[in-house]
């Protein structure tokens, strides 16, 4: 006997737990058999446990596969009809039932002892030979749909589902065992049969028999039956762990009910964790019985609940500790407050010795009470084995319960019942949440306001109080269009060295000051512009504005910094020469634009960068970083009037200068198709076909953007034919460059060097088809959705939104251009796209750029 001593309240009391006399076998096919002989009554419980439940449904997660199988397993086997099975159980005087949970499906037959052999035969046959007849499947589907409807009508059930769906974000415990109706409706009988065959295998089954039986005979009967069913490979199913909860979660919904169901829950460990015994006892002290703390204080004294209870749910994976209460909707907030107050008292002061002793005795009583029937004993053994592989786990657990101390209770309460680990949900009568929702109006951002400072600098401000953040972007016309072959790379170099020191700050001081406030400052260069951006939090806005003004007005371009950045930029040029798509783009641009600045590289050439001097950089800064050539955007938690005043002071001294690149001219169009090539010591080949494109003001702009989108996704005609059907390319797509003057449109792909010629033919063939036919209606619709959607996604943050609006204003499109985009894109017709495709890809020549590996020199020549 195991002695479980219960002390202080009655020193003479000694509670004993019956010894475990169960026997266990593992058959050659992997099936586990557990038998416990108990002759206290001439009955037995015969159970079959399958180690599968809703969390193991893999790619059909949420379909309720395990649950529908529970319904279907006795609808007929290879040798018996459903009616025959039911008749045999009735003839044996037995009762059959089943249940499905997250991690198991259990079938049991309770019978008089003479019916054990029949029960074993029926369960074995169902486990291995169920046929899931299609006509029965159709009927049972409707039965389960009625079960769905019952659940949807039950406020307590819906409240529980809401709690688990909120508390669990990744683990399958978030989904109901019965499944989700929409996923369930997609299931077919064939899919259920496939699941049955994969999970109902001997090595995933445990048979448990408790009662007036002969263990040896049962062992022999089961071994004889299963000798024809070999062990099978059981596919491991990935069950994602629930990540730690890092903040309170709340979900409140309305339902057709008169009362509110309130739930509070905290994540706790799995069943085998040493803290579980103390957590279970704490749940008992808080909410089990009329003398529990929650019942006395919340229901009886305060009158804030019609019912209240606590639970400690500890399955095989981490579970939940919770409190459930049914309350008057008007008293829900008060009840929540009092429940949390009571839990805080336990965390601070603990519980009394009497409360602990009572909880221990109630725990023992509950467990012992469950063992009064053969079914209860079999269920205890099955749960022990399934979750812990220890038939004595219940005894070990109850021993642990007796050892729990007052300090343990307070420790686990303080450890787990914390606000960041709390999930709070409620199901409420219809109309009771509307007032609260109206009261909490969402904070929205304002419209963009445009100001012009006294020196002509344009300032865009958007007040957005949603977060205490501010994004500042300063953009100036320059970039490649402002460069020559001799000064190529000067925009990029100027932008980098701007941040390397001013008249009053060193580069280190600039970096330290911005990083000390959790901000950032960066710079960049492009084809038509240069930018400096600052990100700061609201309290540090003035510091950010001051730093921006300092680098724009007072950069001193230290010689040492210039030399260092030249080295970095030259290294970048070398790195580009190793990336084959960039190599292809560079040789294509050189051929397409010849002597035009767009033929140049953003990083410059190694030679041009090396010859740039401090004097060159200062002259460049003085010409292009002037007020009439720039736009500053300030988007975030700011006041527009204050921003205008601050920047008048900070940048009012900037020289006016003049708007640059107003006389930028387009490149001369090429007159014939050209081929250019580069050889690299690489293992792949790249092909790029480039055409003269448009500038950003052209009426054809959006049609080309839509062709670009339609040609670049995984569903594009290029991808499907060349990559999927022909297997000729690693990647395939399109890209374009639009600027203040016409840019380019290119199609590109990467391929095996041995396939360059056939893939080139395929690519040009698809371009010709596009030029002749345009896009299909489906392609155009998808491209419009994608183009508009990507723009909306990109514009959701103030840093990218402010930067783009500043560029649009700088280039002459206007800061509010984003408002026109969706309407203009949606207005593009199939005929327009067809005309534009013909205009650019049929009626004008192109440049074909090819990058391929170096040809290996024969050994004789190497010598």
Summarize the structure.
The protein has 32 helices and 24 strands. With 863 residues, the chain is an alpha+beta fold.
Characterization of the model:
The chain has a six-stranded mixed sheet, with helices on both faces. Strands 14-15-19-16-18-17 form a six-stranded mixed sheet, sandwiched between helices. Helix 11 packs across helix 15 and helix 19 runs parallel beside helix 24 (640-651). Helix content is 44%, strand content 19%. The protein contains 32 helices and 24 strands. With 863 residues, the protein is an alpha+beta fold.
Low-confidence stretches: 1-13, 857-863
Radius of gyration: 37 Å
Report strand order across the widest sheet: 3-4-8-5-7-6
Helix content: 40-55%
Q: Structural class of the helices, strands and pairings?
A: alpha+beta
Oligomer: single chain
Major sheet: 6 strands, mixed
Instruction: Tell me what portion of residues adopts beta-strand conformation.
Output: 15-25%
- Which outline best applies? elongated
Give the terminus-to-terminus CA distance. 91 Å
Tell me how many strands there are.
24
Instruction: Summarize model confidence as the mean pLDDT.
Output: 92
How many individual helices? 32
List the helices and strands and how they pair.
Blueprint: E1 2-5, E2 14-17, E3 23-26, E4 32-37, E5 43-50, H1 65-72, H2 82-91, E6 95-100, E7 105-112, H3 116-129, H4 134-153, H5 155-167, H6 181-184, H7 189-199, E8 205-211, H8 215-226, E9 249-255, E10 260-268, H9 276-287, H10 293-301, E11 307-313, E12 319-327, H11 332-349, H12 353-369, H13 374-388, H14 393-403, H15 406-416, E13 422-429, H16 434-439, E14 448-452, E15 458-463, E16 469-477, H17 490-497, H18 507-516, E17 520-525, E18 529-537, H19 541-554, H20 559-576, H21 580-593, H22 606-610, H23 614-624, E19 630-636, H24 640-651, E20 674-680, E21 685-692, H25 701-710, H26 717-725, E22 729-737, E23 744-751, H27 756-773, H28 777-794, H29 798-811, H30 818-826, H31 830-841, E24 847-853, H32 859-862
Parallel strand pairs: 4-8, 9-13, 15-19, 20-24
Antiparallel strand pairs: 1-2, 3-4, 5-7, 5-8, 6-7, 10-12, 10-13, 11-12, 14-15, 16-18, 16-19, 17-18, 21-23, 21-24, 22-23
Helix pairs in contact: 3-8, 9-12, 9-15, 10-11, 11-15, 12-14, 17-20, 17-23, 19-24, 25-28, 25-31, 26-27, 27-31
């Amino acid at each position: 006997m195991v002695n479980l001593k219960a002390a202080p309240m009655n020193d003479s009391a000694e509670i004993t737990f019956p010894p475990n006399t169960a026997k266990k076998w593992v058959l050659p096919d992997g099936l586990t058999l557990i038998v416990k002989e108990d002759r206290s009554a001439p009955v037995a419980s015969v159970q079959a446990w399958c180690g599968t439940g809703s969390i193991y449904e893999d790619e059909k997660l949420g379909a309720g596969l395990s649950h529908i199988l529970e319904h279907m397993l006795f609808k007929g086997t290879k040798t018996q009809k459903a009616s025959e099975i039911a008749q045999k159980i009735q003839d044996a005087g037995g009762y059959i039932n089943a249940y499905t949970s997250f991690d198991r499906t259990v079938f049991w037959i309770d019978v008089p002892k003479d019916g054990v052999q029949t029960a074993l035969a029926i369960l074995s046959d169902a486990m291995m030979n169920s046929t899931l007849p299609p006509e029965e499947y159709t009927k049972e589907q409707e039965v389960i749909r009625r079960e769905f409807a019952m659940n949807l009508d039950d406020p307590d059930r819906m409240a529980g589902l809401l709690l688990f769906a909120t508390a669990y974000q990744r683990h399958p415990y978030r989904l109901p065992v019965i499944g989700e109706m929409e996923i369930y409706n997609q299931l077919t009988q064939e899919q259920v049969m496939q699941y049955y065959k994969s999970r109902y295998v001997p090595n995933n089954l445990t048979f448990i028999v408790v009662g007036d039986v002969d263990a040896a005979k049962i062992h022999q009967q089961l071994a004889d039956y299963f000798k024809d069913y070999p062990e099978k490979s059981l596919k491991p199913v990935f069950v994602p762990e629930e990540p730690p909860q890092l903040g309170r979660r709340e979900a409140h919904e309305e339902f057709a009910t008169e009362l509110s169901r309130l739930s509070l829950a905290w994540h706790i460990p799995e069943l085998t964790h040493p803290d579980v015994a103390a957590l279970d006892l704490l749940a008992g002290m808080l909410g089990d019985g009329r003398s529990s703390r929650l019942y006395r204080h919340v229901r009886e004294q305060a009158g804030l609940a019609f019912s209240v209870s606590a639970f400690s749910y500890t399955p095989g994976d981490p579970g939940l500790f919770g409190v459930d209460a049914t309350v008057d909707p008007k008293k829900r907030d008060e009840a929540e407050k009092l429940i949390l107050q009571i839990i805080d008292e336990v965390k601070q002061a603990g519980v009394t010795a009497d409360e602990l002793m009572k909880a221990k005795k109630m725990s023992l009583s509950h467990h012992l009470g469950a063992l009064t029937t053969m079914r209860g004993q079999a269920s205890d053994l099955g749960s022990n084995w399934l979750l812990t592989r220890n038939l004595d786990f219940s005894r070990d657990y109850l021993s642990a319960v007796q050892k729990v101390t007052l300090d343990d209770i307070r420790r686990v309460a303080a450890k787990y019942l914390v606000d960041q680990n709390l999930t709070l949900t409620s199901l409420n009568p219809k109309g009771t949440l509307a007032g609260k929702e109206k009261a909490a109006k969402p904070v929205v951002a304002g419209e963009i306001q445009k100001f012009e400072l006294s020196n002509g600098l344009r300032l865009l401000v958007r007040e957005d109080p949603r977060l205490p953040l501010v994004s500042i972007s300063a953009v100036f016309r320059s970039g490649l269009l402002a460069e020559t072959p001799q000064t190529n790379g000067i925009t990029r170099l100027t932008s980098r060295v701007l941040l390397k020191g001013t008249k009053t700050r060193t580069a280190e001081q600039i970096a330290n000051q911005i990083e000390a406030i959790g901000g950032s400052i960066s710079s960049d260069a492009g084809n038509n512009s240069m930018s400096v951006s600052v990100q700061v939090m609201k309290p540090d806005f003035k510091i950010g504005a001051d730093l921006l003004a300092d680098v724009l007005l007072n950069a001193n371009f230290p010689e040492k910094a210039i030399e260092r950045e030249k080295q970095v930029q030259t290294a970048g040029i070398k790195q580009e020469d190793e990336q084959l798509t960039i190599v292809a783009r560079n040789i294509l641009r050189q051929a397409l634009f010849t002597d035009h600045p767009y033929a140049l590289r953003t990083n410059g050439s190694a030679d041009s960068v090396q010859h740039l001097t401090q004097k060159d950089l200062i002259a460049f800064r003085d010409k292009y970083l002037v007020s009439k050539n720039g736009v500053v955007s300030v988007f975030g938690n700011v006041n527009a009037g204050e921003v205008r005043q601050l920047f008048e002071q900070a940048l009012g001294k900037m020289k006016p200068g003049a708007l640059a690149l107003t006389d930028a001219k387009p490149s001369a169009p090429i007159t014939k198709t050209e081929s250019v090539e580069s050889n690299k010591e690489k293992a792949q080949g790249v092909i790029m076909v480039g055409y003269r494109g448009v500038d950003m003001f052209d009426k054809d702009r959006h049609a080309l953007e839509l062709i670009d989108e339609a040609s670049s996704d995984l569903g594009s005609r290029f991808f499907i034919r060349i990559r999927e059907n022909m297997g000729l390319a690693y990647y395939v797509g399109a890209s374009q460059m639009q600027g203040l003057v016409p840019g380019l449109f290119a199609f590109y792909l990467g391929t095996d060097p041995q396939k360059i010629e056939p893939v080139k033919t395929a690519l040009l063939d698809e371009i010709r088809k596009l030029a002749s036919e345009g896009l299909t209606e489906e392609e155009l619709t998808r491209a419009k959705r994608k183009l508009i959607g990507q723009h909306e996604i990109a514009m959701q943050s103030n840093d990218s939104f402010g930067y783009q609006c500043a560029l649009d204003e700088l280039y002459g499109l206007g800061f509010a251009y984003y408002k026109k985009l969706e309407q203009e894109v949606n207005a593009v017709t199939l005929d327009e796209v067809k005309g534009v495709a013909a205009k650019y890809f049929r009626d004008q020549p192109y440049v074909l750029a090819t990058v391929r590996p170096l040809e290996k020199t024969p050994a004789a020549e190497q010598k």
